[in-house]
Design a protein that fits this description.
Elements: H1 9-20, E1 27-31, H2 38-50, H3 64-70, E2 77-80, E3 83-84, H4 101-116, E4 128-129, H5 132-142, E5 152-156, H6 164-175, E6 181-187, H7 195-199, E7 202-205, H8 211-222, H9 226-236, H10 240-249, H11 252-267, H12 270-278, H13 286-308, H14 319-328, H15 332-351, H16 356-371
Parallel strand pairs: 1-6, 1-7, 2-5, 5-6
Antiparallel strand pairs: 3-4
Helix pairs in contact: 2-3, 5-6, 8-9, 8-10, 9-10, 11-13, 13-14, 13-15, 15-16
């Protein structure tokens, strides 16, 4: 099943070699960008350690142990996830029971999402974190003898979300973990972890997934047109989960809005732009504007590729528009990098709740100045 994880050959090779040489570390830290397979690799590694198949076929995904792990029902699999805290109540008992009904229901929905559609984002109703009650539960569970497997597997997702109290309590757990326990932390922000926690873990780096691998995955799973796969892969920017999520949510409409915006730009139709910008006055349009800016970054890259590398162009069906913009200002080497940096700055401003219409107007003016000086 490891072959289902794309773009992390080095990390998986390290883990396989550890199993083959029977040199399993007690604690691992899987770190790297979001959406590149850290949690899935942790789950599969834990499955492999308790799998009933021969070593070369682990994890098989078919034996009873693997099936239980895939459904998060294996008695020797302990998962710690960030989740909401109910005011003035303990988050979770030492046995792992979440005591508050509404939080329990959200937690069950989160697990269901992990099982069926792990690439989808899940939003809890309140701020989440890993609190000391979860670490106390972990401490209790790892002291027990494995129920069915050779190892107790503990996965702490987004370990950087531990509160200071939880992190300090967990540090004590790391001092002498039981020999039959494998603890795996995942994080996309390793610098937010205590250095003393990091130093006690074997660190396994995860890399952004290449655009080509994301393209192949999208074409294979979703039967997309090549142009759509290329576009989503570029927007995903190394995040496989984001690529799958974009396809799931059907973000092709944002591309059409971007094309409309560029038509307005090419024709320098300021009146039509005023009608266009009105659509983005609602806060509900924040995500759509964010996506449109991501598309514009791709368009600027395509203009650069028009001069240097036609095979890299994403918007293959719009090469006439790309050529038009290129011909308006062929000095792409001088402005492409600055424009992309400007658009990325606009994305950051949107995150700071700057007026969306002002941002879009500033983009229109900047592009007009670049292509129609």
């Amino acid at each position: 099943m490891f072959n289902k994880i794309k773009g992390q050959d080095k990390a998986i090779s390290i883990l396989k070699r550890a199993m083959e040489n029977d040199k399993i570390a007690n604690t691992y830290l899987f770190y790297g960008p979001e959406g590149v397979g850290k949690f899935t690799t942790a789950l599969y590694f834990g499955m492999a350690l308790n799998c009933h198949a021969t070593l070369d076929k682990r994890p098989c995904g078919a034996c009873s142990s693997c099936q239980k792990s895939l459904s998060f029902s294996h008695p020797d699999l302990i998962c710690v996830f960030p989740f909401p805290k109910e005011t003035n109540k303990a988050d979770i008992s030492v046995e792992g029971e979440i005591k508050t009904e509404n939080i329990l229901e959200e937690y069950k929905a989160y697990i269901e999402n992990k099982i069926k559609t792990p690439w989808k984002e899940f939003f809890f109703s309140k701020n989440i974190g890993i609190r000391i009650a979860s670490i106390r539960m972990l401490e209790h569970r790892i002291q027990l003898t494995p129920n069915e497997g050779t190892y107790k597997i503990c996965i702490i997702e987004d370990a950087d979300q531990m509160t200071p109290q939880a992190a300090n309590a967990f540090l004590k757990t790391l001092e002498e973990p039981p020999a039959d326990t494998i603890i795996i932390l995942t994080t996309s922000r390793p610098n937010s972890l205590l250095p003393t926690i990091i130093s006690r873990c074997q660190q396994i780096p995860f890399n952004p997934v290449t655009r080509k691998l994301i393209e192949q995955k999208l074409e294979e799973n979703k039967s997309l047109e090549i142009i759509e796969a290329k576009m989503y892969a570029r927007i995903a920017n190394g995040n496989m989960e984001k690529g799958l999520r974009l396809v799931e949510e059907g973000r092709i409409e944002t591309r059409e809005q971007t094309v409309e915006f560029l038509h307005i730009l090419i024709n320098q139709n300021d009146l039509r732009f005023l009608d266009f910008v009105i659509r983005y006055r609602s806060s509900k349009m924040l995500n759509k504007l964010t996506e449109m800016i991501l598309h514009l970054i791709i368009w600027i890259s395509d203009i650069s590729y028009f001069k240097h590398a036609h095979s890299e162009i994403v918007n293959l069906d719009k090469t006439d528009m790309i050529e038009t913009l290129y011909q308006k200002n062929p000095d792409v080497d001088e402005y492409a990098s600055d424009l992309i940096n400007f658009l990325e700055e606009m994305l950051q401003r949107l995150q700071g709740h700057v007026n969306q219409q002002l941002v879009l107007t500033e983009i229109y003016n900047r592009l007009s100045k670049t292509f129609f000086p």
